[in-house]
Amino acid sequence: IAHIDCIYVVGILGENFTFPVQISQKIVEPVWKKNKDIVAEWEEQKNPTYFDPLRNRSVLMENGSLTIFNLEKDDAGTYMLQYWDSVTDHYLDFELNVLDSLPEPNINCSTNDDELVLNCTAYFQGSLSYAWKLSNKPQSYQNQELSIPLKHVGTTTKATCIIKFSQTERSSEISLIQCLP
Predict the structure, then answer these.
(1) How far is 162 from 150, CA to CA, in rounded Å?
(2) Which burial class, exposed, middle or buried, applies to 139 when counting CB atoms under 10 A from its CB (0-12, 13-18, 19+)?
(3) What pLDDT, in 10s, does the model give residues 42-60?
């Protein structure tokens, strides 16, 4: 029985978490186990069956992917997907770690010469992706820091910093006028 390497995955408290299952072939009878106990299975000609602790808070798809709703700290652990591709049995191992909820990001602003500099910070155990959105521009900027020429700062312009980790986002907003000296 070939077990491929364990895939480390990280979710966030309270989010809906989907294991990153990528199987191209058609699969039959997927079974998910957590720490050796069956938590979800799909027998042929039947609907999926769920067991505690995932009963009523998970969904198993035909491609074998499993989503857990409203992730809890206790959901952390070792999961194994076993499935049959009509030739042989396959196993996918996942190690799920559950981190605390995302914090609200903090926005700091300062001015230098003819630019307004915005900085977004958030303290978190994982590496976050950052983005900025300006109320007067359609595009977003994928960066932790954003510089805007002062001449482009309108009296009603707002800036939003969005942090993202796993499948969860949090954001904070600031009115640029309050940054001006």
Answers:
(1) 22
(2) exposed
(3) 988 888 999 999 999 999 9
Q: Which long-range contacts (CB under 8 A, 24 or more apart) does 31-38 make?
A: 31/81, 31/82, 31/83, 32/60, 32/66, 32/79, 32/80, 32/81, 32/82, 33/79, 33/80, 33/82, 34/77, 34/78, 34/79, 35/77, 35/78
CATH T-level topology, domain 7-99: Immunoglobulin-like (2.60.40)
User: Between the CA of residue 103 and those of 69, 100, 150, 161, what are the distances in Å?
Assistant: 20, 9, 29, 12
At the top level of CATH, which class does the domain 106-179 belong to?
mainly beta
Tell me the per-residue pLDDT of 107-146, one tens digit each, with 9 for 90 and over: 999 998 899 999 999 988 888 999 999 998 888 899 999 9
Strand, coil or helix: 176: helix
State which amino acid sits at residue 69. Answer: F
Place of tokens 């998970």: 58
Domain boundaries, the chain: 7-99, 106-179
pTM (whole model) above 0.85: no
Strand partners, 49: 41
The one-letter code for the residue type at 19 is: F
